[in-house]
Amino acid sequence: MLDEATFRNECDRALESLKQALIAAEDDSAGFEFEDNNGVMNIMFEDGSSKFVVTPNTPVRQIWISAQTTSFKLDWDEAAGAFVFPKTGEALMQLIQRLLREHLNDPSITLG
Length: 112
Fold this sequence. Notes:
With 112 residues, the chain is an alpha+beta fold. The chain has one domain: 2-Layer Sandwich (Metal Transport, Frataxin, Chain A). The protein is built from 2 helices and 7 strands, in the order αβββββββα. The protein is globular, with a radius of gyration of 13 Å. The protein starts with a helix and ends in an 8-residue tail after the last helix. The model has no long low-confidence stretch (mean pLDDT 93).
């Protein structure tokens, strides 16, 4: 398990990359709005259907995503140099991109 300082550094880096990718995709009118509230990321859909929430969970050294009535818990993968969802092997950015595409039924959404 990562020590807390390393987790915070890697988590901050990963979430900042995600934030920039979401801002760029939002500008392309992808059907959602992005909001960052003190490290808690909210992706709200224009149709009001639901929202995705992305948060760091420091005590367990994971990034948690609540989306599509499911909780996704991503672990740090040293070999990949990324936070990865163990069930599918998807990195944070890949997972969010897939979830957005599925939710909005829009395969053209691209993150980073």
